[in-house]
Amino acid sequence: MKNLIIGSKGFLGRELCKFLKNRNESVVEIDIKNGSNEDARFIKLPLDNIDRVYFLAWNVGGSKFLYNANTQIIQMEWNNALMNNIFPQIINTPFVFVSSQLSDNIDSVYGIQKKMGEVWTKLSNYGISVRLWNIYGYNEKFTEKSHVVSDFVYQAMINSEIKMLTKGNEVRQYIHIDDACDGLIKSFDITDKNKTYDISTGEWVKLLDLANEIKHITNCKIILGEKLGESLLIKNKQFIPNWKPKISLYDGLNNMIKNFKND
User: Fold this and answer.
1) Residue 76 belongs to what domain range?
2) Domain total for the chain?
């Protein structure tokens, strides 16, 4: 199997590349981080002899980035250019478009654009849309684009405390990155391509409970914020057939913390 990964150096992309290579599958990688000659907004994709395409590339980050008023136009222009260039090229190749549960939140640029991608995918003959829910699993650098799980682990390990921006009442669904990679591969077996499928545990977890799991492992202190968090209680659609997550939140966090110590 020969796979093209568009966005191979991203949060999910680099782990998916490893996952596929461990299955002895061939991987062709494309990412702007390798240089402007791999900018997926403009390039002609190397589709010769490609069996499957994973459309991961997106200008994205955690909530600090997604909902920052100063990033909205940048997100809109960048991700529209990605879709305008990529979709016409892959329309006749089996592909998976990686969407998000936030595609049901049309109050955000991110959600609207992911919904657009889902619609374009359904108009193709070979595409399947898959929504991911709050992936975690390895430690990122603490930046504007880093995600909440990694941020909490970083704070716990460096400062022995987690400073939360809210009271932690908001809920999220989390999925370990290895489970996400497994789900993406299995998505190519789906025959009903007119639906959008979820890769998630389906379990709602309070942000404070997430912090407490990390506290249980690291014995760090938790400092609550003053404001109430917001919960977008988006309904799950349908899960990937013949797929179930295998890694519990506690085990996933424990592995992240062990890796942090070893890095």
Assistant:
1) 2-262
2) 1
